[in-house]
Amino acid sequence: MITWWKARRFRTQLALIMALGLVIRVLYLMFVTRDDRLWGDAYAYYWSGRLLAEGHGFIQPLPWNAHHIRIESPDRPPGYFLFLAFWSLIGIKSWLAQRFFSALLGVATIAVVGLLGKEISGKRVGLVAAFIAAVYPNFWLHDGMGMSETQTILTVALCLLLAYRYWKQPSWQRAAWLGVSGGVGALTHPDTALILALLGVSVVILAKGEAWKRRLGHFALVGAAGVLVISPWVVRNLVTFDEPVYLSTGLDITMAVTNCDETYNGYFRAFWYMPCATNHTPPEGDLSVQAVYWRHLALDYMSAHKGELPGVIAARVGRMWGLYRPVQQVKLNILEGHRTWISWTGLGFFYVLTPSAIAGLVLLRRRRVPILPLLAPVLTVTFSAIITFGNTRYRAAAELTLAIGAAIAFVALVEHLQSRRVTPVEAPPPEDDRALADAAV
Question: Residue 344 to residues 12, 137, 147, 348: CA-CA distances in angstroms?
Fold first, then answer.
């Protein structure tokens, strides 16, 4: 009965935190981003989903909307606009309404973060981590903008939860579900494929009480399940385009706009600069052919500037983690639709959470709980910065690690302070009174 009551109390508290997160997200949507112009990545996601629901397939939305020119699209994996396409399919086509449902994905993330924290280090950590996910701007700012990071954070959180559950009790079923969740994540953002690979390696290495033959079998199952999920999209790309395309061609154009004079030595150092690409004319052919051109353009520039590359890479990583030109990064976030006050608030949270998270991971390691799964998003976004550029939005998956690690540190600090409370002890009687008492005895 007591166990049932405690479980119910945790669920109730988590539900209240989720309600707080929903209020924040709805207020942000209705009073901050409601009338935002639909452009950039948000335009691509919204219209890709809507055109898919209308039966046009996976095509570039801008050429179709402007000139009714059909161009097959390989530049983004379909996870997020499949989600948006569902709402268009059932008649909910408003961009505002679809952003509301994206906000619900953000609320679901709060729940998964709470369960993840509980799985790793107990109910208190779960509730604190859920609260961070509810109020930390770098969790909720994507929701009201119609960006795929909302779904990315959710899928990575689910991967981490399944990874820790597998670690505690390895099974074929849990390995398979980990692979499936990672495959869904990879269809939302290609970087999640690397996170899945790191999770697969880490949980198999750390699986308790399992023979190595069985562990390797589980690892193969994680990979097979992930490949099975993404294979329809990969097959579609391979048979549609002239050059091989797997998850997307987004990396190629991104490399092109991040490797030029302006991003190596100019104002946009370690960031992106669109004229890096628009100053060049790609060859005739479909988008896969152009992707090859952009890739070689970037690699040629990198090869010609090898001496500068280490410094640029260091700046990219520094920009990703708020160590290189953070004030400028706040200004550059405006290019992606961020409000300045939200960027500043998010940066303040980030500077508090990051050292706390490091302390939390150290504590977790001392408790002999594996931290490799939590490091997987951190390593992945850092690698992404190395090969592309540093950006607050591209750090989205790693914010989960900050929330969990900071929650562990905060709960440990509170418990330490509580343990230091000294229970009042009755003072001994004065010497004279003690002597009288002895005499009476």
Answer: 32, 10, 20, 6
